[in-house]
Amino acid sequence: MDLTEDELLTAIRRVLSGAGPEVRIGPGDDAAVLAPLSGEIVVTTDVLVEGVHFDRMLTSARDLGYKAIVVNVSDVAAMAASPRAAVCALTLGGDVDAAWTMELFGGMREAAGEHALWLVGGDLSGGSCGWIAVTVIGEVAAGRAVPRSGARVGDLVVVTGSLGAAAAGLRVTRDGRPASDLDRRLLRAHFRPVARVGEAQVLERHGATAMMDVSDGLTLDLSRLCAASGAGVRLALGEVPVAEGATLDEALGGGDDYELLATLPSADAVETARDELRETFGVPLAEIGVIVEEGLTVSAPDGGERPLRAMGWDHFRA
């Protein structure tokens, strides 16, 4: 590192300068001070570890900083909440310089600006490898948070957008082949995910009983939603929205999509939510299954049925 810790912190604070009126004391003090929120507080933390979640040879510092914020915003969104503030704890490997670090925080500020989110503090340390731990604080109206544990028998399972693009983008990155227009869209899906904040609030207004984001793979996250709800599911394989350029396996278990997986109480609720999402955000909503009393099964287009195999990212089995 070509700067001292204090010099680097001073430079970072310049990148993060400015905050809304809810931030009473921002970066540079022992702790940040925020004005009281009007609703209930929602808090989430996610860590990106070098060699596990990212490779500095394959991703830019700016994209990495952007993604570190968005994956946390997505968790807040999945509760039907709005992000408000964030802190970042950063460990830098010995070969990381100040320019790379400033680009990282530039990406964080870019993502924060898109979501009206303030970076209000954090911590820096040296270490043998790099990791980025971001905590996001959000708020939701009292009693309006949507957990993953509320699915009921008969609820319809829906997912926003399409799935598999991020996993396909990682495949493109590793292959290193020349990028076509489609390849570039897949790369963007991997490096610049979208947090469905407004979309989640639409689903909540239309009666979503359970919701989570698809971060580790559709089938794995769907099995988690069912386990939390004490229910089962029958997944309609032919209705899973596979992104252009992705395979079905990437859509079912690739992960990193950050689309919303939710359950809605009726076909009318699905239709009205679908219309609003399309008109307001241009985002499709696919009905992909139904909650049942028990068991995880997949219905194939040919009418056959088989057990659902939960595929996806497991940090301890990767």
Explained architecture:
It is a single chain. The chain has 318 residues and is α+β, with helices and mostly antiparallel strands. The protein has nine helices and 13 strands. The chain folds into two domains: 5-140, PurM-like, N-terminal domain (60s Ribosomal Protein L30, Chain: A, 2-Layer Sandwich), CATH 3.30.1330.10; 156-307, Alpha-Beta Complex (Phosphoribosyl-aminoimidazole Synthetase, Chain A, domain 2), CATH 3.90.650.10. It has helices at residues 5-15, 61-77, 98-114, 165-175, 181-191, 197-205, 218-229, 248-253, 267-281; strands at residues 23-25, 33-34, 40-49, 82-93, 118-127, 131-140, 156-160, 210-213, 232-236, 260-264, 285-292, 296-299, 305-307. Helix 2 runs parallel beside helix 3 and helix 4 packs across helix 5. The mean pLDDT is 88.
